[in-house]
Write a structure and sequence with these properties.
Number of helices: 8
Oligomer: single chain
Structural class: mainly alpha
Bound molecules: protoporphyrin IX containing FE
Largest sheet: none
């Protein structure tokens, strides 16, 4: 007789959350790419000389201030892309809220936390499982803050938003590091889980069938 040991992690996420997850991965990497490109290849200061050289090669002349305006236009384009990807992220945040409402009771993050809290302290997985689920709750809180601050920056023509633009921008910029931390820990966590006790956890996030034994 085979005894199948079930795990707390052996749940299957419904399609609405799985599709949300992989779209979120895509949009986050796109958003972070714009930030990285902005501070590397498209750094305005570093490109002023390049613009001047190119114009000179074609027989023209351009002073540093004019060249700066050209170089700056490229970084502006990147922020424009960042803003539109950001609207996508805001949409995904709303999607996740709707998902939390419409999925079955046992698939809700809140129910999973409540369920684990009721387990006896001696349950081996309880602490680990709660830590993982709390990290997701913190992620959603940060996502909310990132979305709100991003929207305030995106609609700077609103007078009230314009007044608070500077501190909001600083806070929005700071929040990025919390996401780098989450993504780093999350990736280490899922890879470790996949290679140890929870093989199948990553494919489970794709096909939705719980197969961890
Ligand atoms: C993956 C999540 C995100 C990351 C890592 C991120 C990162 C950043 C960073 C580092 C800045 C520059 C801040 C500074 O210069 O001090 C920025 C600016 C900005 N972000 Fe985000 N952001 C994210 C999500 C969003 C979202 C959801 C929106 C909503 C639309 C948004 C809209 C903006 C806007 C409008 C700016 C100002 C760009 C400008 O200077 O013209 N971002 N973001
Ligand atoms: C390719 C990289 C990634 C892989 C392989 C991956 C894999 C997974 C897996 C297997 C789970 C389910 C774990 C569990 O049952 O607790 C999960 C959940 C989750 N992942 Fe990822 N992930 C990746 C990247 C990301 C990124 C970039 C983000 C966000 C920035 C993210 C956010 C989340 C969140 C919020 C959950 C919890 C979903 C929920 O139950 O509410 N993941 N991920």
């Amino acid at each position: 007789m085979s005894t199948v040991q079930t795990s707390l992690f052996n749940h299957h996420n419904p399609a609405i959350i799985r599709i949300w997850h992989w779209l979120t991965v895509l949009f986050f990497f796109a958003s972070i790419s714009t930030v990285l490109l902005h501070s590397t290849l498209f750094e305005t200061r570093d490109n002023i000389g390049m613009v001047q050289e190119q114009v000179a090669e074609k027989g023209g002349t351009i002073n540093a201030e004019q060249a700066k305006a050209v170089a700056h236009e490229f970084s502006d384009k990147l922020w424009m892309a960042h803003k539109f990807i950001g609207f996508g992220i805001v949409f995904l945040f709303l999607w996740r809220i709707v998902a939390e409402v419409v999925v079955s009771k046992e698939s809700k993050l809140s129910s999973k936390i409540k369920f684990a809290l009721k387990l006896p302290l001696s349950n081996e997985e309880r602490k680990h499982y709660l830590l993982v689920k709390y990290s997701y709750s913190i992620f959603y809180l940060l996502l909310f803050l990132m979305s709100v601050t991003g929207l305030i920056l995106a609609f700077e023509e609103v007078e009230l938003f314009d007044k608070i633009h500077r501190p909001v921008k600083q806070f929005h910029g700071f929040l990025q590091y919390t996401f780098y931390l989450f993504i780093g820990l999350h990736l280490v966590g899922v890879v470790k889980a996949e290679l140890t006790k929870y093989a199948g956890i990553v494919s489970g996030m794709i096909h939705g069938k719980g197969n961890i034994s």
